[in-house]
């Protein structure tokens, strides 16, 4: 059994961001994942506080326990085998809510050890970063931003510190906020199909590994 968690960062509950997350989970469901192993965590819906404060700093320094508001979120991460981080790109990087998730939740003492920084709770998991963008994936590659994002998020943050060896970044591109043009909607729909396929393939791949 493979537990799947999709985490979203968008203030609108009916946003394309959440539609992408649901498509990812729908794909996992279509590949045989049961509803009780599929989890959608909307950071806005739970009222997540992204601001790194004094309680976070005291915990980092070993002077206080983990801030209480982080524990339920961390438990959901621990329970998951496959994690999708879904967010729109703001100013060529992740939005403040998702950055706060990295700052506060994926922290010392949970994701990596306080003494020697070896990976802890996320080690060995599969993570897919799904970025929603106005530009195309080709543009992000040609501009150098794709390489920067992959290095920052996948290689360094998730790989080096958290021990996530299977981390990848994909784009849902060509989007325009509030644009209902039929051609754009059709293009977006095709990209949702690709995200469903991604979710399904990850579940099938996990099942094949268990069979081996």
UniProtKB/TrEMBL annotation:
One of its GO terms (molecular function) is NAD(P)H dehydrogenase (quinone) activity. Belongs to the NAD(P)H dehydrogenase (quinone) family. Residues 3-194 form the Flavodoxin-like fold domain. This is NAD(P)H dehydrogenase. Keywords: Oxidoreductase. The keyword Oxidoreductase applies. It comes from the Bacteria. GO terms for cellular component: cytosol.
């Amino acid at each position: 059994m493979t537990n799947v968690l999709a985490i979203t960062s968008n203030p609108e509950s009916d946003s394309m961001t959440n539609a992408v997350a649901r498509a990812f989970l729908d794909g996992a469901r279509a590949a045989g994942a049961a509803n009780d192993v599929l989890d959608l965590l909307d950071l806005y819906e739970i009222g997540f506080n992204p601001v790194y404060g004094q309680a976070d700093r005291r915990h980092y320094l070993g002077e206080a326990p983990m801030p209480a508001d982080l524990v339920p979120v961390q438990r959901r991460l621990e329970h998951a085998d496959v994690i999708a981080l879904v967010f729109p790109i703001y100013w060529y990087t992740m939005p403040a809510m998702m950055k706060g998730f990295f700052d506060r939740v994926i922290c010392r003492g949970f994701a990596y050890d306080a003494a020697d920084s070896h990976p802890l709770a996320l080690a060995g998991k599969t993570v897919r970063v799904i970025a929603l963008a106005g530009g195309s994936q080709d543009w992000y590659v040609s501009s150098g931003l794709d390489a920067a994002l992959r290095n920052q998020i996948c290689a360094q943050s998730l790989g080096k510190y958290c021990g996530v060896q299977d981390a990848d970044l994909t784009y849902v591109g060509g989007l325009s906020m509030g644009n209902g043009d039929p051609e754009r909607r059709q293009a977006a729909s095709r990209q949702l199909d690709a995200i469903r396929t991604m979710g399904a393939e990850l579940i099938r791949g996990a099942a094949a590994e268990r069979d081996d």
